[in-house]
Design brief:
OB fold (Dihydrolipoamide Acetyltransferase, E2P), about 500 residues, single chain, 3 domains, 5-stranded mixed barrel, alpha+beta
């Protein structure tokens, strides 16, 4: 049974990479205490401007847009015309800190893993599901506490001054990326959940227009626009029957644009309050020379020094010239850019920023149910807006940033191993077949190739001499190992 095999692979991978697959008895006991604590902390009816500074915004047309099966809902959004032009965007972020005590057993488990781990067969949530999919989730039809990032976006997509405050919110519609995107693109009627709320169609179209303005301005500043193929196993019962590629769509872009704006506003607020913060960065690429070579091989030219604007323009040209192969080029460039990381930005410092997003001020704050850096940032935000001292020292933040970067990398390895195990299950009867592919990684530790169809990545064991990222090859499948997630090729 493929699904059961993959569950076993997932649990073993969690152990192998130093992540905790299960919540211990101390966590379970604390969950029981949190359930009792949740009663006085549950929202209930409140008047605006009550004693604890929580604004009652439940009447606003909040909604969530996420994956179809997501229950750990971290954010809601609302758009309104601003008083003096532009559009007011409100992003509500689940107030996880209200129920997760710093230093407690739940916090310790979350601080160890630092992220939820999503595999095809099994999800390992950062927080116990009683919290992440219920008590701290912005669940449909429920009143919930939230931290709201309230910002004005002008017609050109520039974000003005932002305010952050506590509020009560109510999720009026749980929407899904694919169905909302199909409706926005005119390919399908509005989803039932959207049609059920009067005026929500106009609300989403307004959000979509603002998201386009935000994205357009980022592109003008050099933000890199990629198109990658994320393959997910397709099960027929408990058997893996195919790998289906998921592509970005308009609804995903909408949420991404709003989250980027909210994360930037959060970083700037902490800086204005003279608080240190954990920033998300991507450094200037060390392998720019290889990116130059890729451009030259396609008859284009990039400057000798890393230049986000020039690379962004090159990617736009390639998408227009060869849309079919653009995902392969995107993947090669992403590999050469290098991974993102968490770093501490001290008061008065000017950090390296995020090369891929072309922004200087960027933190992670919008997914505290799923990522520990976001929960840390939420605690910093609360202290900043309350006029309290920072709950973490700079040394503590530095240790957290390093640990979160390391554990995120380990979590990605777990996810990749299980995806590769699923791919190995799909390919184990096709040994000896020849496939077309593209080189996605080339270093001393190994050379990696992704097939065009099915979109599976494996190691090039023979014939890797002289190849580099972005090269296209024909390869023969020579070995699979489901338990280890190994898929090995030889150059054909």
């Amino acid at each position: 049974m493929h699904r059961e095999i993959l569950r076993g692979v997932a649990r073993q991978a969690m152990h192998d990479y130093g992540l905790l697959p299960d919540f211990g008895p101390d966590v379970q006991a604390e969950v029981k205490r949190v359930e009792r604590k949740a009663a006085p902390h549950s929202p209930g009816p409140r008047a605006p401007g009550d004693a604890d500074g929580v604004r009652d915004l439940r009447a606003l047309p909040w909604c969530s847009i996420d994956n179809d099966d997501s229950l750990d809902l971290d954010q809601l959004a609302v758009a309104q015309p601003a008083n003096h032009g532009g559009t007011r965007i409100l992003v509500a972020i689940a107030d996880v800190d209200a129920l997760v005590t710093p230093g407690g057993a739940i916090d310790a488990h979350a601080g160890h893993n630092t992220t939820s781990v999503y595999t095809p067969a099994l999800v390992f949530p950062m927080l116990p599901e009683r919290l992440s999919t219920d008590l701290t989730s912005l669940t449909f039809g429920e009143d919930r506490r939230a931290m709201v990032v309230d910002m004005v976006v002008d017609e050109d997509g520039a974000v003005g001054d932002a305010e952050v405050y506590r509020a009560l919110v109510h999720n009026h519609a749980k929407l899904a990326y694919n169905s909302v995107a199909a409706w926005l693109d005119g390919e399908a009627p509005p989803p039932d959940a959207l049609a059920a709320v009067e005026g929500l169609d106009r609300q989403i179209r307004l959000q979509d227009r603002v998201a386009h303005a935000l994205r357009r301005l980022r592109q003008e500043r050099g933000a890199l626009e990629f198109q990658t193929i994320e393959a997910r196993p397709v099960f027929d019962g408990d058997q893996v029957k195919d790998l289906r590629a998921e592509r970005d769509n308009r609804a995903r872009d909408l949420i991404e644009d709003f989250m980027l704006a909210a994360n930037g506003a959060t970083a700037r607020l902490l800086e204005a309050k003279r608080f240190p913060s954990i920033r998300r960065i991507v450094r200037s690429p060390e392998r720019w020379d290889r990116i130059e070579e890729l451009a030259a091989s396609l008859g284009d030219r990039l400057p000798p020094d890393a230049d986000a604007l020039a690379l962004a323009a090159f990617l736009v040209r390639r998408r227009a010239a060869d849309p079919t192969r653009f995902p392969d080029l995107s993947l090669a460039v992403i590999k050469l850019l290098g991974a993102g990381e968490y770093v501490v930005e001290r008061v008065g410092e000017d950090g390296p920023g995020h090369f891929g997003l072309a922004v200087k001020d960027y933190t992670h704050s919008t997914a505290p149910n799923r990522r520990f850096p976001d929960l840390v940032t939420q605690r910093l935000l609360k202290a900043a807006i309350d006029g309290d001292q920072a709950p973490y020292s700079e040394r503590q933040l530095e240790s957290l940033a390093t640990h979160c970067t390391e554990m995120e990398d380990q979590a990605h390895k777990v996810e990749r191993r299980v995806k590769k195990a699923a791919a190995a299950l799909l390919l184990e009867g096709r040994l000896g077949q020849v496939f077309d592919g593209i080189v996605t990684g080339a270093a001393r530790k190994g050379t990696w190739v992704r097939l065009f169809h099915p979109p599976i990545e494996g190691r090039l064991e023979r014939g890797f001499e002289g190849v580099d990222v972005g090269d296209r090859l024909r390869v023969r499948l020579i070995h699979t190992d489901v338990q280890q997630g190994y898929i090995d090729f030889a150059r054909a």
